[in-house]
Amino acid sequence: MKLALIGVGLIGGSAAIAWRRAGVVSEVVGFDRDRAALQRAQALGVIDRAAPSAGEAVRAADLVLLAVPVGAMRSTFAAIAATVPAHALITDVGSTKRSVIDAARAELNAASSSSFRRFVPGHPIAGRERPGVDHAHGALFEGKLFVSTPVGETNADALASVEALWTAAGAKVSRMDADEHDRVFAAVSHLPHLLAFALVARIASEPDGERKLGFAGAGFRDFTRIAASNPEMWRDISVANRAALSDELRGYRALLDELQRAVDAGDAEAIERVFDLASRTRRRHAETFDAE
Question: Cα–chain-centroid distance for residue 146?
């Protein structure tokens, strides 16, 4: 199978490595708007050759993987719509699904309705805090979830084939409705990233920020690890999933206001009540949360 990899970063690069190791991909043609990243991917052997454009990359592909920021999905679908082969499977790794599906429907249907039917929207729940193809790893998806979010038009054979590819990469496959996916991941992924970015940015902007950071320990490290993630990617996710993320942020802010009042009043019972619920919940889910 010939893979066209559009976006040669951490997730796309890891998928290409995993599929090649599993023997399901024999050749990888890559494209990335970052020419340095594209050259690095070729030097590392993640891709076999670089294409001058996304449209050229997909021209003879059997499988197309879009691993670009969700804000770039629509323009990427538009770039490949005229040249992607009718038989090719198309999938993505975007962290939001409704916006990606809407972009695919608009751009792929404009060129060929069969292309949209062979598009399988998906989201591998895996990653590292360090972005870039240098950190790509073929075992990244082993034991992790891959969520597919098919729509009514999705071809059943295409869905089964894409899910089988992620199984071959070591992932456990689950299916969700796109809107449910976006609500769930606004809570357990998008909001935590926003909060980690916000905390580090707040401290970094303070006059004594560097001194404070010099005393940070394991708790701060663990809470803010994801703040080292790709800012462009998470900017686009925050905008694309803004309705669900805003709901979660409002709920979180309400709880912070409750804690602010409790702290100001010295209300130890109210503080402990929140902490106790969080502590019990975290311990109950420790095996899932801490699995690597």
Answer: 11
Taken in order of first residue, the domains within the chain and their CATH numbers are: 2-176 (3.40.50.720), 180-290 (1.10.3660.10)
* pLDDT tens-digit series, residues 8-40: 999 999 999 999 999 999 999 999 999 999 999
Report residue 111 as tokens.
């060129």
Collapsed DSSP state (helix, strand, coil) of residue 91: strand
The DSSP code for 171 is P
Instruction: Out of 6-20, 128-142, 202-216, 234-248, pick the least confident.
Output: 128-142
DSSP run (H or E) holding 148: strand 145-148
Q: Is 134 exposed, middle or buried (0-12, 13-18, 19+ CB in 10 A)?
A: middle
77: its two tokens = 């679908």
Alpha-carbon separation of residue 10 from 7, 16, 67, 123, 129 (angstroms)? 9, 10, 9, 14, 10
Q: In what order do the strands lie in the sheet with 172-175?
A: 122-125, 145-148, 172-175
Helices within the chain (DSSP H only) = 10-21, 35-43, 54-57, 73-80, 98-111, 113-117, 156-168, 178-185, 191-204, 209-214, 218-224, 231-240, 242-265, 268-284, 286-290
45 Rama class: left (phi>0) / alpha (psi -120 to 50) / beta: left
- Condensed to tens digits (0 to 9), the pLDDT of residues 44-84 reads 999 999 999 999 999 999 999 999 999 999 999 999 999 99
Residues in the chain, total? 292
Q: Which backbone phi and psi does 137 adopt, to 5 degrees?
A: -150, 130
**Matching residue, tokens 């689950």:** 174
Q: What whole-number distance in Å separates Cα of residue 37 and Cα of residue 52?
A: 13
- N-to-C CA span, the chain: 30
